[in-house]
């Protein structure tokens, strides 16, 4: 069964195009490292909840948009290998190493998940 990584981030709305370009570069590398499918989803209906919500989870400001992303891998072993290769690329390749992020990574929420229902 596949393995899925999920991410929620707050991106300055003014950085939308720069985020898309950066995501395309990073996601292309993840595909080369074994990812099957990647979706970067720009929030357009992200309501404020009564107890909690995506916006509060990442401390999004009025000038930021919530982005919900996921990466599907064939299995956890491929994911672990792919992420290790991505970390190496980001620490050694000058293009990735010196590229400023388009969002505040300290407010990134992420996790790995094993699917329990797949239709």
Topology:
Layout: E1 3-12, H1 16-32, E2 37-42, H2 54-57, E3 64-73, H3 76-92, H4 94-97, E4 109-113
Antiparallel strand pairs: 1-3, 1-4, 2-3
Short account of what is shown:
The chain is of the alpha+beta class. Helix content is 35%, strand content 26%.
Roughly what percent helix? 25-40%
Category by helix and strand content: alpha+beta
Distance between the termini: 12 Å
Largest sheet: 4 strands, antiparallel
Whole-number radius of gyration? 15 Å
The outline comes out as globular
Number of helices: 4
Number of DSSP-assigned strands: 4
The ordered string of helix (H) and strand (E) elements is: EHEHEHHE
Strand arrangement, largest sheet?
A: 2-3-1-4
Q: What does the average pLDDT come to?
A: 95
Uncertain stretches: none
Beta fraction:
25-35%
Description of the structure:
With 119 residues, the protein is of the alpha+beta class. The chain has a domain of 57 residues. The chain is 35% helix and 26% strand. A 4-stranded antiparallel beta sheet has the order 2-3-1-4. The model has no long low-confidence stretch (mean pLDDT 95).
Features:
119 residues; alpha+beta; four-stranded antiparallel beta sheet; 4 helices; 4 strands; 26% strand; globular
